[in-house]
Amino acid sequence: MPQAMQWYDMAQHASFGFDKGGIAPRIQRAGVAGAGGAGFPAYAKWERLEDVDAVLINHQESEPNFLKDRWIGREHTELLASFCDALLDAVLDTVVIGTKEHYRGVWVGALEEATDATVVKPDELPVDVDDREGVIVACTGDRYEYGMESVLLREIADTVIGRDLPVDHGWIVQNTETLWNIARGLADGRPVTHKYLHVDGDTPRHRFLKVPVGTPGTDLLAAAGRPGGPGSHEILADGGPGWSFEIERDPDMFGVTKRTNCLLIIDEQLAADNRIGNGRINILGPQAWKGRTLEDEPTELEPDRVRIPLLSNPEYEGVATYAEPTVSPSDTVTVGDQIARPGEDAISNAHHASIDGEVTAVTEHHITIERR
């Protein structure tokens, strides 16, 4: 049995526990947040499972330097396929995997085979899910804006959501890493403690990393050959070349969140010339590091310290709320221990220790753990 599956019995669909009312609280306890970039507590979507006709797995890789979802889909095929089967057995008629056509073969072939998927090519879109059951691999062309769930839904299913949520139109949309975290959480209660991400931009090398949640930005940049961080005429950005935002604080104070996909070092003037509203930076066209070699296997980092945020995306404050710490300074914790419980009467996630060590600081917004 592959290493990724040692802890999970493939035959036990029942271990996912697909009673419709019980899924969302277990996802919340596992602390799953949107890993595609939004960071919203994932359980909130699954609370409305009764309203859903189909699940769309966003397997698009919305940036040209991202490989993490493709890698998860290939290396953890068995668990993802089993989770899709369990969804179809218990609650849904259709699961759609939305990917780019040129990802088939090396990256998506195993998932197609394991799910016995029907493949729909770009010229056969959109898909009418009312007429199809089972797993569908819906292939788009090579356009990075398909990574936006609203655009992907329109392209694949001819569903226009406007200002609504996908669930208002009968869809749950999750990116691959998020769905994988949900499957792990439902299978055995395994919480989210690590994140897959990239480091890129004006760095000596592109990195694909697996890191504990809360890993300082300085550790990521050092792994990519920039231990000093951005220079005087550079900025640090959170996101990929097509969709990133400046991080306006010291890299050492930036802790990886459950939504962090990539850190970029970008020339300050290049960033200023390519801001397109609301602070977003889009350098897909002029990026200076096109054509570089991309790592296609993750390397695991083990930082000495983590600074775990208690809300994965502060932009949601007011809609979602910070978790409530359950530890104090000098407490000893082990990876997976709950360190913050969901806030009451609001959308909020649990959070967990991502390294073994001692709690050294607790605030309303962060918990710091140092390795011992």
Can you describe this structure in just a few lines?
By secondary structure, the protein is α/β, with parallel strands linked by helices. It has helices at residues 23-29, 43-46, 68-75, 77-90, 109-115, 149-157, 176-188, 217-223, 268-273, and strands at 54-59, 94-100, 118-120, 134-140, 171-175, 194-201, 207-212, 234-240, 243-246, 262-267, 299-300, 305-309, 324-325, 332-333, 338-341, 351-352, 357-362, 366-371. α4 packs parallel to α5 (109-115).
Mind explaining what this structure looks like?
With 372 residues, the chain is an alpha/beta fold. The protein folds into three domains: 3-188, Rossmann fold (3-Layer(aba) Sandwich), CATH 3.40.50.11540; 194-300, Ubiquitin-like (UB roll), CATH 3.10.20; 305-371, Beta Barrel (OB fold (Dihydrolipoamide Acetyltransferase, E2P)). It is built from nine helices and 18 strands. It has helices at residues 23-29, 43-46, 68-75, 77-90, 109-115, 149-157, 176-188, 217-223, 268-273, and strands at residues 54-59, 94-100, 118-120, 134-140, 171-175, 194-201, 207-212, 234-240, 243-246, 262-267, 299-300, 305-309, 324-325, 332-333, 338-341, 351-352, 357-362, 366-371. The strands form four sheets. Strands 9-8-10-6-7-11 form a six-stranded mixed beta sheet. Helix 4 (77-90) runs parallel beside helix 5 (109-115). The protein is globular, with a radius of gyration of 20 Å. Residues 1-14 have low confidence and may be disordered.
Give Rg in angstroms. 20 Å
Q: Which CATH architecture of the largest domain?
A: 3-Layer(aba) Sandwich
Parts with pLDDT < 50 across at least 5 consecutive residues: 1-14
What's the arrangement of strands in the largest beta sheet? Answer: 9-8-10-6-7-11
| Assembly classification | single chain
CATH class of the largest domain: Alpha Beta
| First-residue to last-residue Cα separation | 33 Å
**What is the mean pLDDT?**
92
The CATH topology of the largest domain comes to Rossmann fold
Shape type: globular
Structural class: alpha/beta
Proportion of beta-strand residues: 15-25%
What sequence of helices (H) and strands (E) makes up the elements?
Answer: HHEHHEHEEHEHEEHEEEHEEEEEEEE
Total count of domains: 3
